[in-house]
Structures are given as C-alpha cells and as structure tokens.
Design the sequence.
C-alpha cells in the first residue's frame, strides 16, 4: 500500500515538474520577444513621429504601423500631403 502511494506521489511530482518546464519555455519565448523589441531602433509610433519631425517640417496627420515599421503622413506648409516611412529595425527615415 505504501509503495502505491509513493509511486502516485512521484507521478504527481513529475507531472508538476513537467508543467513547470513548459512554463519556463513560455517565459523564454516571452523574454525573446522582449529582447527583439529592445533591439529595434524604433519601438513605438511616438518614437517614429519624433524621428520624422526631426527631418521634415509639417503637421502630423496620422501614423500607422506597417509591416516593417511605421508610415507617418504629414501636411507641409504649402498644403501638400506626403508620407514618410520609418524602418523599425534600422531607424531609417525615407520620404515616399
């Protein structure tokens, strides 16, 4: 009888450790995503807008996330609307 209880206890402990290992793997994936975000030159729409405003004059009309970064739409002093792309990985700003 004691052997059966001991084996059942061991099985429970092993199952518990297995789920803890799964949690550790999930935590590792989450940490990897955080590290990737830290490696980006541009981490937010606000940061993208600030970079664009350093290079171009105009009123910011909108900012949108694009596949590789952000697209900022501006209205210049002459009334022309233009877009500027900001690459999130490199921080490169380019007018479209």
Sequence:
């Amino acid at each position: 009888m004691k052997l059966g209880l001991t084996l059942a206890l061991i099985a429970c402990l092993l199952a518990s450790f297995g789920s803890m290992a799964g949690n550790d793997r999930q935590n590792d994936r989450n940490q990897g995503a955080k590290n990737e975000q830290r490696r980006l030159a541009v981490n937010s729409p606000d940061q993208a807008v600030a970079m664009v405003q350093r290079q171009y004059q105009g009123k910011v009309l909108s900012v949108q996330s694009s596949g590789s970064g952000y697209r900022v739409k501006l209205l210049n002093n002459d009334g022309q609307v233009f877009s500027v792309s900001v690459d999130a990985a490199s921080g490169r700003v380019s007018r479209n």
